[in-house]
Predict the 3D structure of the following.
Amino acid sequence: MSSASIHKHTAILDAAYELFGSGGFYETKMSEVAERAGIAKGTVYLYFKNKEDLFMAVTRRDCEGFLQQLEGKLRASGSLTGKLSVIAAHHLFYYYERKQHTKLFFRAPNNNPELVAYMALFMDEYMQAVVKVLLEGGASEPELMAKSYIGMLDRLKMDILFDPSFSEEDVHKRTKFAASLFIGGAVANMNASLGDLPAGQ
Amino acid sequence: MSSASIHKHTAILDAAYELFGSGGFYETKMSEVAERAGIAKGTVYLYFKNKEDLFMAVTRRDCEGFLQQLEGKLRASGSLTGKLSVIAAHHLFYYYERKQHTKLFFRAPNNNPELVAYMALFMDEYMQAVVKVLLEGGASEPELMAKSYIGMLDRLKMDILFDPSFSEEDVHKRTKFAASLFIGGAVANMNASLGDLPAGQ
Amino acid sequence: MSSASIHKHTAILDAAYELFGSGGFYETKMSEVAERAGIAKGTVYLYFKNKEDLFMAVTRRDCEGFLQQLEGKLRASGSLTGKLSVIAAHHLFYYYERKQHTKLFFRAPNNNPELVAYMALFMDEYMQAVVKVLLEGGASEPELMAKSYIGMLDRLKMDILFDPSFSEEDVHKRTKFAASLFIGGAVANMNASLGDLPAGQ
Amino acid sequence: MSSASIHKHTAILDAAYELFGSGGFYETKMSEVAERAGIAKGTVYLYFKNKEDLFMAVTRRDCEGFLQQLEGKLRASGSLTGKLSVIAAHHLFYYYERKQHTKLFFRAPNNNPELVAYMALFMDEYMQAVVKVLLEGGASEPELMAKSYIGMLDRLKMDILFDPSFSEEDVHKRTKFAASLFIGGAVANMNASLGDLPAGQ
DNA sequence: TATGAATGAGTATTCATTCAT
DNA sequence: CATGAATGAATACTCATTCAT
């Protein structure tokens, strides 16, 4: 692929990322993608088989970037607690930085088995990255714990996407909160005794 | 509204619930909804303004049912820990019982502000129900905690939806796991010491 | 099917007959068919699955009409020679009457197996009708003879389709010529002896 | 035109002949033609103005070859009957030898006046070749007779194209049958008297 | 109320053709 | 001469919605 080709390939992915991201799969027109990429409609089809293929490619690039960055950051960080904080920060800031374009990324074509399979794979890889961290601490149910942590983070991210007044500082607070809650549990954030809590749960 | 009308209204909602639930908004046809409801295509429009309106109504009924049931269960339960367990059980079993039809419910029309607003409202009401419970324990950041708990539960529910071998027993385990992790934190599930954990976090 | 439906069905077939007939399959647009039939584009699809289906239906109606008329005329006619003349007249006048619309009917979608099969069936039925006549005369190779006769007629019809000055009288002459040539052979139309003709052939 | 050019010109014609022949005009892509000819897409346009021009050239080469071969064979043959047999054999074997590639040759672009004109010209030249033979026998309606003979042959050729089990021997039989029927007429193939045949027709 | 025939706006995709290299 | 990346016109088909009955 020539450098011009690569440039066009990237331009299409970028355009599609923004449009799929804000309008979703069904409400994004291939002609819009072409226009935003600064090329002709037919040209899109020289690089991607069809609309679903383009959506897959956009998703793939995004997910791979997410995981690669995460792994780099985890390698560079130390203690267990530090790593859990890194995960939280990565998750929240990743979306914070892309809030313009990922608002509605979760609007995907509904019955595309390939996409469903890929998303499952992504989720699994993400989870395994977290599991690996947890195992260092000797967690007994690392997969469930990893899923729980990811779920927490994913929900905490929603406000970031939809609340335009969210500041970087706010994201930092949320990051610390998430790691702390996950590690210490609700009990650590409460004044009242939890005397009725079954011990060891 | 006559009783015949109510019956038809309900039949349409039921049909739409199943179809939207398994195929998503865009891949569900109004004609299919009518057919499954046992009425004529035009009749759907006597009860719902248009496809989005129908989707809204389906969503609303589902969310309201979810919240009402939750509130009933919370009133009937005692301690803080008990209530947190009730929330987890409700969230997971709700989807467990509807796994046939909610698989893809999260595929919604992408740019409908009314729907977005409603979902935000639902999330807020759900969160407030959890907040109310947490406040009994004197939580300091009850909203963030509530969101985190809901996020955990939502991710833990995904396997239930997509893994057909999931048994009722498995759901029970997950329920206990979720409540326990949320209350006691990761530290309680780990063998290794978390000596590097900043105290009080 | 209501009478209005039948009317529309027929109107579409008529419109398609004329357009396919003069422009061929590929150069006829469904929107033109609809317009000429006086209905909306979408309505065509209520009556015919797609463009190929419509083409098939048009072809079928035309071929069936051709054969039915032929059979009626054959029943009403007497001697072997008379029947052969009836066949010739039917073939030539059928196209003479439709010269406006069948000029290019032989431009069909190229790779439609169903259509190919149907045309083979039609040709076979046509041939069998001729074979039946020939068998009354004790022909020894009736199928090849039938095909030959049909081939003659089909070529003799071409001028009718493409020559606008062709009169009904001309068609009559051609009819007589065809029957006579087929029955008596070239030898009957020649002054010179055909002494070198293998005897008995 | 250099020899390399001639080679490319021929390669394109060969490729187009096979593809148009088996897929028809509309379902053959210029890119396929180029690929099969072993050249780039754009190069085709250095040799042929456009797709229709290429189709014309392919048709022309085929028709000219058909006529030239026929004329050569006719010069080499003797009696009237012999010449008629030569015509039949030529027509049938020509397609027999090309059955792979001419199955669908008759699927031409529908509204190309130049092509229509050329085909008329070809038909006329073919007819004149036959007429010339028939005039040696003093035929009174040589053109109609020629057309009829060609029509017969054309129909008799169809089975050859579509029936893969057709042997060379079968083609021979058909050749003899055609010439014999044309010369002697149906009456020669029948047991029954044709007493009602108008004398001299 | 209920129907369902009719509508027509809306869009992904193809492919002949061009032209800068 | 040769290339092949880029173009964009052109069209079948779908399906939400309407409205005469």
Notes: Residues 2, 4-5, 39-43, 46 of chain B lie near DNA strand E (CB under 10 Å from a C1').
